[in-house]
Amino acid sequence: PLVLGIESSCDETGIALVRGNTLLADAVASSVDEHARFGGVVPEVASRAHLEAVVPMLTRACAEAGHALRDIDAVAVTSGPGLAGALMVGVSAAKALSWALDKPLYGVNHLAAHVCADVLDHGPLPEPTVALLVSGGHTNLLLVRDIAVEVHELGGTVDDAAGEAFDKVARVLNLPYPGGPHIDRVAAEGDPRAIRFPRGLTAGKDMERHRFDFSFSGLKTSVVRWVEACERDGRPVPVADVAASFREAVVDVLTRKAIDACKVHGINDLQIGGGVTANTRLRALAEERCAQAGISLRVPQIRLCTDNGAMVAALGSQMVQRGVSPSSLDLPADSSMPVSQVRAG
Ligand code: ATP
Ligand code: MG
Ligand code: FE
C-alpha cells in the first residue's frame, strides 16, 4: 500500500510517500530561518508557515513520486507531541485528505516515528529492541516490542532534553540557532578532555532511582559557570574545547545508559533516532561502545534523523502492514501525547 505521511509538529512541514519500507518521495519545508532571530521556535510563526507550505509540499511529494492523490491507500499524520497550533495544520490536512479520498487515517506519535525512520534505511526493526530517542524536546530510553503497537518508556529526562541542552549551550558560546550542528562542527577542533563536565544521574545513588533517566540542566549550568569564570578573569573562552568537552559529556551519558538498558533487558539491538542523532560524536561513540558490548546498532542516515514526513509515512506503513485499526476522523492534535502511545484514537 501507498502511504502518505504528514509532519507538522514543530518548524518543519514534511510530506512524504512510502510504499512498504521504501521511501518514494520526501518533501520538507522549514521555517527555521524565521525563528533564528528569536533564538527559538515561535509557535504562531510556525503555524502560519505550515499553512503556507502544506499544499506546495503535497504537490512536490506527489510529483517526485510520480503519483496522483487518488493512488494513496492510507494517510498518516503526526498527532503529537508538539506545538498545538502547528500540529493542528497537519492533522486538519490529513483529515481532509482521508475524507476526500475515502482512505484510512492514522494519527501517529512523532517520537515513535523518529524511531521508525530507520526502517527506510535498514528494513524492519528487530523486535524487541531498545531505542534511544534524542531530539529537541525529548530524551528517552524505550523498550520497543512492536513499533506500531507497543512501546514502553524505560526512562526520560528529568529536566532538559539533549537537543535543548545543545541549543542552550550554543547560545552561551555565541553560536547561531539552532545550536546542535554548530557545537558539533566547532567541537571537531577542540579537546574533549580539556574540561571534565558533570555526567548527570550517573552517580551510584542517582542510578538507584534514575538508572535510565537523564538530566542535562546541571551540565548546562556548569558550562555557563565555566564561561562566566573565563570572562571574569579576562581570559578568552576556548570555545572549541568547551564545545568538545560538553558534547563528550552528553554523548558519554547517552551511550552508557543506552547500553546499560540493553544489558538489563537482555536485548542485543539498539536503535537510535531523533534530531540529535545527527551528532557525529554520538554516532561514533555509540558504534564503538556497541561493538565492544556485542550489541548491533542501527542509526539512520542524517537526513532521516531530523523532522520529516518520511518517518511518519514509515510508521503509518508499519501500522497498515500489521493490520492496526485506523484512527477516527475526529482524532486530536495532542500536544502532550505520551511517548508510550504510538497511535492516536
Ligand atoms: P521533538 O522531536 O522532541 O518534538 P524537535 O522535533 O524540535 O523535537 P528534532 O527536529 O528531532 O527536534 O531535533 C532538533 C534538535 O536536534 C535541535 O535541538 C538541534 O540542535 C539538534 N541537533 C541537530 N543536529 C545536531 C547535531 N549535529 N548535534 C547535536 N544536536 C543536533
Ligand atoms: Mg526543526
Ligand atoms: Fe522531532
Automatic annotation (TrEMBL):
<dbReference type="GO" id="GO:0005506">
    <property type="term" value="F:iron ion binding"/>
</dbReference>
<dbReference type="InterPro" id="IPR043129">
    <property type="entry name" value="ATPase_NBD"/>
</dbReference>
<dbReference type="InterPro" id="IPR000905">
    <property type="entry name" value="Gcp-like_dom"/>
</dbReference>
<comment type="similarity">
    <text>Belongs to the KAE1 / TsaD family.</text>
</comment>
<feature type="binding site">
    <location>
        <position position="307"/>
    </location>
    <ligand>
        <name>Fe cation</name>
    </ligand>
</feature>
<dbReference type="Pfam" id="PF00814">
    <property type="entry name" value="TsaD"/>
</dbReference>
<feature type="region of interest" description="Disordered">
    <location>
        <begin position="326"/>
        <end position="345"/>
    </location>
</feature>
<keyword id="KW-0963">Cytoplasm</keyword>
<keyword id="KW-0479">Metal-binding</keyword>
<keyword id="KW-0012">Acyltransferase</keyword>
<feature type="binding site">
    <location>
        <position position="110"/>
    </location>
    <ligand>
        <name>Fe cation</name>
    </ligand>
</feature>
<dbReference type="InterPro" id="IPR017860">
    <property type="entry name" value="Peptidase_M22_CS"/>
</dbReference>
<protein>
    <recommendedName>
        <fullName>tRNA N6-adenosine threonylcarbamoyltransferase</fullName>
        <ecNumber>2.3.1.234</ecNumber>
    </recommendedName>
</protein>
<dbReference type="InterPro" id="IPR017861">
    <property type="entry name" value="KAE1/TsaD"/>
</dbReference>
<feature type="binding site">
    <location>
        <position position="180"/>
    </location>
    <ligand>
        <name>substrate</name>
    </ligand>
</feature>
<keyword id="KW-0408">Iron</keyword>
<feature type="binding site">
    <location>
        <position position="114"/>
    </location>
    <ligand>
        <name>Fe cation</name>
    </ligand>
</feature>
<feature type="binding site">
    <location>
        <begin position="133"/>
        <end position="137"/>
    </location>
    <ligand>
        <name>substrate</name>
    </ligand>
</feature>
<dbReference type="InterPro" id="IPR022450">
    <property type="entry name" value="TsaD"/>
</dbReference>
<keyword id="KW-0808">Transferase</keyword>
<dbReference type="GO" id="GO:0061711">
    <property type="term" value="F:tRNA N(6)-L-threonylcarbamoyladenine synthase activity"/>
</dbReference>
<feature type="binding site">
    <location>
        <position position="184"/>
    </location>
    <ligand>
        <name>substrate</name>
    </ligand>
</feature>
<feature type="binding site">
    <location>
        <position position="167"/>
    </location>
    <ligand>
        <name>substrate</name>
    </ligand>
</feature>
<feature type="domain" description="Gcp-like">
    <location>
        <begin position="23"/>
        <end position="313"/>
    </location>
</feature>
<comment type="function">
    <text>Required for the formation of a threonylcarbamoyl group on adenosine at position 37 (t(6)A37) in tRNAs that read codons beginning with adenine. Is involved in the transfer of the threonylcarbamoyl moiety of threonylcarbamoyl-AMP (TC-AMP) to the N6 group of A37, together with TsaE and TsaB. TsaD likely plays a direct catalytic role in this reaction.</text>
</comment>
<feature type="compositionally biased region" description="Low complexity">
    <location>
        <begin position="326"/>
        <end position="336"/>
    </location>
</feature>
<dbReference type="GO" id="GO:0002949">
    <property type="term" value="P:tRNA threonylcarbamoyladenosine modification"/>
</dbReference>
<dbReference type="GO" id="GO:0005737">
    <property type="term" value="C:cytoplasm"/>
</dbReference>
<keyword id="KW-0819">tRNA processing</keyword>
<feature type="binding site">
    <location>
        <position position="279"/>
    </location>
    <ligand>
        <name>substrate</name>
    </ligand>
</feature>
